[in-house]
């Protein structure tokens, strides 16, 4: 699975991108975030408040119960501030 | 192409003229230009850096354009959004809608801006003499976007 991080999520984790293989128990966005928290202190800090982070699966906004699969591109980022 | 993400500045006059070039069907062009403004506090803004999610940004902007075209009879739509490090006073974004009549052009332009601000994956990093910080999303922007949801 390809993980992408933007804005303060990227700076907190210290990576713009990583490839990970979540355990089989990770089935949806909420489960993925819970598992990612355990990956290190940066991940834990970025995901301390999961509601503050937006998630996109394959470049579309995703809700916590949306399923995730090994080939997906999953992005984590703060609420957007463009325009 | 009606949706563009680029680091370079754009020529507002040329961009808007192109929306009605080669057609006499356009009776109204409404546009919005977003600029880097100085900070309201004591610490002057040095620069604003725009980060985006390549791929998803174009996809979301394309979806926003398609939704505007479903809602209003539009002859043309244009969204140009810059990324990278910008100085105070520089242009960030140009949004425009062209239609036969002004109401559709005005309403569609406002819709495009509101939706862009709520959904397009861009983030602003504010740089001052004392450091850098990521801007937080405003509740006003979410409310502005939400007012189109019930239509």
Characterization of this structure:
The complex is a heterodimer of chains A (83) and B (151). Chain A has 83 residues and is an alpha+beta fold. Chain A has 3 helices and 5 strands. The radius of gyration of chain A is 12 Å and the shape is globular. The model of chain A has no long low-confidence stretch (mean pLDDT 97). Chain B is of the alpha+beta class. In chain B, strands 1-4-6-2 form a 4-stranded mixed β-sheet. A 4-stranded antiparallel β-sheet of chain B has the order 5-3-7-8, with no helix packed on it. Chain B is 32% helix and 34% strand. Chain B has a single domain, classed as Molybdopterin biosynthesis MoaE subunit (Aldehyde Oxidoreductase, domain 3, Alpha-Beta Complex). Chain B contains 4 helices and 8 strands, in the order βαββαβββαββα. The mean pLDDT of chain B is 95. At the A-B interface, helix 1 and strand 4 of A face strand 3, helix 2, helix 3 and strand 7 of B.
- Globally, the shape of chain B reads globular
- Computed Rg of chain A: 12 Å
Give the name of the CATH architecture of chain A: Roll
Number of DSSP helical runs of chain B: 4
**How many domain units of chain A?**
1
How many whole angstroms does the radius of gyration of chain B measure? 16 Å
Query: Which spans of chain A have pLDDT < 50 for at least 5 consecutive residues?
Result: none
The chain-level structural class of chain B is alpha+beta
């Amino acid at each position: 699975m390809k993980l992408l991080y933007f804005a303060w999520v990227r700076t907190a984790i210290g990576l713009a991108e990583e490839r990970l293989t979540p355990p089989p128990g990770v089935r949806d966005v909420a489960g993925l975030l819970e598992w990612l928290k355990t990956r290190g202190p940066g991940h834990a800090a970025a995901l301390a408040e999961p509601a503050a982070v937006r998630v996109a699966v394959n470049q579309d906004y995703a809700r916590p119960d949306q399923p995730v699969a090994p080939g997906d591109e999953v992005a984590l980022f703060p609420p957007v501030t463009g325009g | 192409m009606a949706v563009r993400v680029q680091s370079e500045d754009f020529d507002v006059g040329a961009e808007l003229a192109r929306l009605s070039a080669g057609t006499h069907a356009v009776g109204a062009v409404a546009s919005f230009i977003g600029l880097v403004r100085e900070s309201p506090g004591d610490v002057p803004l040095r620069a604003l850096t725009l980060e985006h999610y390549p791929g998803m940004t174009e996809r979301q902007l394309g979806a926003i354009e398609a939704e505007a075209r479903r809602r209003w009879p539009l002859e043309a739509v244009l969204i140009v959004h810059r990324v990278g490090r910008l100085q105070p006073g520089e242009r960030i974004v140009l949004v425009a809608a062209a239609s036969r009549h002004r109401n559709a052009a005005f309403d569609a332009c406002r819709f495009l801006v509101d939706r862009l601000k709520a959904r397009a994956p861009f983030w602003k990093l504010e740089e001052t003499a004392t450091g850098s910080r990521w801007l937080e999303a405003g509740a006003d922007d979410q409310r502005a976007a939400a007012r189109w949801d019930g239509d």
